[in-house]
Amino acid sequence: MVSTDRLVAFAALSFLLIIVPGPSVLFVIGRALAHGRRAALTTVLGNTLGAYLLVVAVALGIGSLVERSVLVFTALKLAGAAYLVYLGVKAWRQRGSLRAAFAGEEVAPHSGLRTLWEGFAVGVANPKTIVFFAAVLPQFVDREQGHVTSQMLLLGLVFNLIAVVSDSVWGLIAATARDWFARSPRRLSAVGGIGGLTMIGLGVTVAATGRKD
Fold this sequence. Notes:
There is one protein chain. The protein is mainly alpha-helical. It has 10 helices and no strands. α3 (about 35-60) runs parallel beside α8 and α5 (about 70-95) runs antiparallel to α10 (about 185-210). The longest helix has about 35 residues, at about 150-180.
């Protein structure tokens, strides 16, 4: 299995990558501002499941195709970017529902399953995570010890555990800011717009993310 030294080194590198806000963190913040703590934490869970699917793909050898093929990488990246923009536009158009919800009016519920799926979709299409897993994860595997697939799955689990904690903290902080917005009708009307614009900007950023090759 993975040696302690390799595991610690990988955890440290993962932490440095995770604490820098990327697509996943910004998406969680957008969900927290638009829908609150529960949606933020559900998004974190979905995002983590999506990211771990990438770990499984790399462990099974599929990740190398994404890492080596500009076409596959670009297609996946643009699909994720388009989905983020779609969610952002949707949040912007529905920003008035937040005020209605706090006023006790009937609004269409944002189901936990749909929130989970949205987080999953963003996690599995995150170019930052794709490149990290495909290019870095194999470097920490001790092939002399055997069980290469198991080692990659373990390393990926460590990454995702760190990500769950970090992303949850970001989400809870953003949800707390949402509560502050809710004390004023004017602030409240801006919450959905802020979350929507965040996701639209994130989608554009992801689309503009390039590769050296």
